[in-house]
Sequence to fold (524 residues):
Amino acid sequence: MMGRRGAVLSLPLLLAGCDYQTYQSIFSDASTEVHDFNILFVIFLIVCAIMYALVIGFLIAAIVRRSRTGPADVVEEGRHHQSNPAMRTGLIGWTALVGTGLMALAIASFFGDRSMANAAANEKLSVNVTGKQWWWDITYNSADASKMVRTANELHLPVDVPVHIYLKSDDVIHSFWVPSLAGKQDLIPGRDNDITLVPRKIGIYRGQCAEFCGADHAKMALIVNVDSYADFLKWWHHQLESAPAPTSPLTQAGYNFVTTRQCSSCHAIAGTPANGTVGPDLTHLASRRSIAAGAMPMSEGNLYGWVADPQSLKPGNHMPTIGLEPDQLHAVVAYLETLK
Amino acid sequence: MSSPCRASLLFLGLAALTLAACDREERHSRSKPIGETVPAGQSPDTIWPGGSQPSPLDPRAKLYDNNAPALSEGQYLYTQMNCVGCHFHGGGGMGPPLMDDEWRYGGRIDQIAASIAEGRPNGMPAWRNKLTEDQIWKLAAYVRSLSGQPSKDAVSSRTEEMSNTTPGSLTPREPAHSSDTAEQ
Fold:
């Protein structure tokens, strides 16, 4: 008795856990594109459901009728003019219905397509997203090169501003998919692809590489942060700043290690000699929500684990296990934590 | 037992034996963590004092030589770390070519690893502490594959760059300079 009541009581709790509307859902309505697409989906669903129900209904009716009346097949005997006038009208009506349904689908998809293409024509913000094994390299374009921002694995977009995302790949085919904001678009090496969207709701959304791209495909996630325009500008201006100079002996030791040893061969930190372009830009690492393309949330503990042995947390990824001594590890993590 | 039954049993047994012979190469994403070092004093020379005995091949060589994942990771690093800038895709430019059979500092994988780690005169920078030991060994394995040393089934059939030459998996194996690899 208790068990059943407990189960019934916990059901709303379980349902409340389904927070699809905000995070990763094709039914989110968080952007114009997804909204348009959902309307299109509903129209297709209704038209197809009506047609399906009618076809199945007629099929059942035909089976029942056939078994009741026996052989009297005027059509097969070629005497069309003798067929039931009601049936003739019915067939003409049926053809008209099919035509109307197809027209409805064609018109709906035409307007859906126009509406989605509208954002591309009114591009206000342009972002390059480059897929790499297994993370996202993000560059905000600007006519003024000093205003360009390079970051990784976290896209910030202003709400209600049409954004044009240019998709490239450095190695294999990836696919950009943020279900709450846009449909899928592949990133193909040697080819320029793009996708446009207009975010409509402030919030945090999750994207996922949707084309199998190797060992860590599952751990190649993208976080999209839709902010108000003011918050977005604040973020942009913060991203333009260089990394702060280390202030304590521990962070100084970390700085020395990061800028002179293995780290700087691949990673860049603005304002320091570290200028590798192979791996993600670390200038504002600690202000991001996740480590290693959504593999784990940003926290001191996870940062320790990641720097100490990336191969145990995301096996096969291209960041090598360096084998840091404990004091080096403390220093490096302390320095990375200052990169807000 | 009927004859077809016995024949099929025999066939199954043979198939199982054949399968057992398949030695899938190991893919190690993490190197031996600490204490692994590139052989520091690995002599690049081809003549040795006190007779003609070269130093023995480093035991780690067999982890990387002829290992497909190591070769492809090395190929990846070769582009990323801008080896291409001087050596080009093996043909050589500012730096010496790597696809011929001449090795100034030794053509054994441990000798190549030592050259990468320590740097060499006339411009080759030292990569120790800039790359991990594991990465240096993978790079060495790839560099060795440029001159066609590893077996065909291990090298990548695809290059990172545009190429008009036959893929490494289809070119005939070339023996290295006899004095360099006589012991292999």
Notes: The two ends of chain A are 53 Å apart (CA to CA). Chain A touches chain B through 17 residues (CB under 8 Å). The mean pLDDT of chain A is 88.
